[in-house]
Design a protein that fits this description.
Layout: E1 7-8, E2 11-12, H1 16-34, H2 39-42, H3 50-53, E3 56-67, H4 78-94, E4 95-105, H5 113-125, E5 132-138, E6 148-159, H6 189-198, H7 216-227
Parallel strand pairs: 4-5
Antiparallel strand pairs: 1-2, 3-6, 4-6
Helix pairs in contact: 4-5
Length: about 250
């Protein structure tokens, strides 16, 4: 068919029709590659990075403290007082609303008014001047120690999803998912949860704090040392002890 081929000089080329379809075929193949969806980014399963799968978020949640003041004391002992004072500092920075005190009721329950007053003073020592709401809860097992529980709502860092989810079999008994050499679903969740619980101020996870004022005394000392030609850095003197002398009375 003369319409499907043409002569260039003294040689015949391939079919004009086939050559015209070649760019279209390449474009079709490339378009198919472009439509190949990356399932790792668009599926319901999050990305493999544990920080994306188990992110730390800030939320308003109840922050509780269980204390066990000695029943024979009319107030708080030193250790419990320090715990409540630290709890008051947490309220001062992140808390809002009243502070609730849950008092156990029953055979071993109850608390003296002087203990409530000691709790109020310890909270005030920590900077918490919030109204107290005293309520009771029933003691389920009288043979166990029943704590006094303090609770307030405030900003708290926590993991968005609960840990302990195992949607897939680690041994891959029913499929080949374990052969992909990717982190399992629950990987990193406990680590993120531990980090969230240890943060003193959850706002530090969002942004840095304001810069503190400069130490004018340290700055003047450094400038004076430079003027004298002395190294302004701090000279730490460390006295090492030989291992052979450890445990020997001098």
């Amino acid at each position: 068919m003369p319409t499907l081929s043409k002569k260039v000089g003294s040689r015949w080329t391939g079919s004009v029709f086939v050559l015209s379809l070649l760019p279209l075929s390449v474009a079709t193949l490339l378009g198919g590659c472009a439509n190949n969806v990356d399932r790792m980014r668009t599926s319901s399963i999050a990305m493999d990075d544990y920080r994306n799968r188990h992110p730390i978020v800030l939320a308003e949640a109840a922050q509780k403290l269980d204390i066990f003041p000695p029943p024979e004391l009319r107030g708080l002992d030193r250790r419990t007082y320090a715990q409540v004072a630290e709890y008051g500092r947490r309220y001062h920075y992140n808390g809002q609303g009243p502070i609730q005190i849950f008092v156990p009721t029953g055979a071993n329950g109850g608390v003296s008014p002087s203990t409530i007053q000691s709790i109020r003073r310890a909270l005030a020592a920590g900077g918490a001047y919030a109204p107290l709401q005293v309520t009771t809860y029933p003691v389920v097992n009288g043979g166990l120690a029943s704590p006094l529980r303090l609770s307030f709502y405030g900003l708290k860092a926590k993991v968005a999803d609960p840990c302990g989810q195992w949607p897939n079999d680690l041994a891959s008994g029913g499929g080949v998912q374990g052969w992909e050499n990717k982190p399992y679903w629950n990987y990193g969740c406990s680590y993120q949860n531990m980090m969230a619980e240890q943060v003193a101020d959850p706002r530090d996870l969002v942004g840095p704090r304001a810069e503190d004022p400069a130490d004018t005394e340290m700055r003047a000392h450094a400038i004076d040392s430079i003027r004298k030609g002395v190294d302004p850095s701090t000279d730490w003197k460390v006295k090492n002890t030989a291992i052979s002398n450890v445990g020997i009375d001098q």
